Structure formats: structure tokens, C-alpha cells
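Sorry to interrupt, but I need a hand with the structure work. Can you supply me with one protein entry, sequence and fold together? No commentary is needed, just the two lines. Leave the record below and I will have a look.
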Amino acid sequence: MRKLISLMIIVIMSLAIFSGCSKKEDTPSYTNISFQKITDSEVPYAVERVAEYKALRGYAVWQEGENYFLMVSSGEKPTGGYDIDIKSIEDGEGVTQVLVKETVPGKDSMNTTALTYPYVIVKFKGTTGKFRIVNEDGEVFATLNDKPAESKIKPGEIFEGTGTYNGQIDSNSIEIEVNGEARAFMIYDVKDQLANISEGERVSISYYKNENGQLMVISLEKFD
């Protein structure tokens, strides 16, 4: 009888150990991926697309060699005080998991009343190439890479005019008053095109409207 009880105890313990091992094997294994924040100009072949995507909520990924470039955008916001940041990037189970932190302005905070476009761009390597982007509330970001590429600009779609340069809205947007109306324009080579232009000066501008209705600057010069 004692031998039977001992045998049953051994069997039960063996099953418990086996069950514990199985659970450990079922637990996904993730590897932390180091990343580096970068600016728009450091994104190969995609500077103009970054300028377009920042007004939309979602993410876009570009690859050059072994390097990946990830942009995550909160989309257009009515005021300042909003922010977005990458908390972590982990790779495992064939998917790269990216955790995003989004910040909203405080109730009594003082912020600009102009439209803002919070986004972040990071560079990293060593991932699977399949991504899942989620914020701290569990909201999943949709990909923006599936949007059709900008078609070539036809001559009839290019607009030209003059106006008063009112200043930068953010790192990729400027405001120009045209015919008494302040209008926002997307511009991706800010340093070059604004090098000799000061606020309040008259400018001549060439631009087109993209598929999202945004005004994209082709050229901008001081108007004499």
C-alpha cells in the first residue's frame, strides 16, 4: 500500500513539473531593441512623405540596408501641449512590438492655439520587419505605408502666387498670408528655403495640393 501511495505521489509530482515546464515554453520570448531618435532629414528617400504623414494618425516604416526607420504620428491636434514618444521596442514571436506614450495638454496649461502635429521618428536594426504599434492605453496604430504614393505633379496642378510669410508653425509647416487669408503650407527643406526669408516679408511661392488636401511647397523665394 505504501509503495502504491509513493508511486502515485511521484506521478503527481512529475505531472506538475511537466506542466510547469510547458507553461514556461509557451511564454513568448522578447528581445529589447535599442533605438535612436532622429530628425526628418535623416530618413532616406522619405522626407516628403514624412511631411505628409504627420497630419495623419498612424505609423510608417522605411528600410535602408539593415536599418529601419519608424515614424509614429498622433495626427493633427487643435493646440500645442500634445506629445508622442517611443517607450520601448521589443522583437519576438516574429513581430516587432513598439510601445508608444502619448501626452495631452493639462487642463490649465498654456499652449499655442495653432494646429500641431506630434510625431516621433526612430532608427534601429535587428527586427523582423513585421510591426505592431500600440500606445499605453492599448490602442493600435494603423500603418500609413499602404497609402498610395504621390503621383507625379502635372503642370496644371502646380500653383504659383505671392504672399506674406508669417513664420513657422512647426518643423515642417509654415504660414503664409495669401490674398488676406493665412494658409498653412508643408515644407520639408526648411533650412534651405527659409535661409534668407524673415517674418513679415513678401514671398513668391510655388506649390501643389497632395491627396490629403495639404499644400506642399515646391519652391519659396523672397519677392522683390
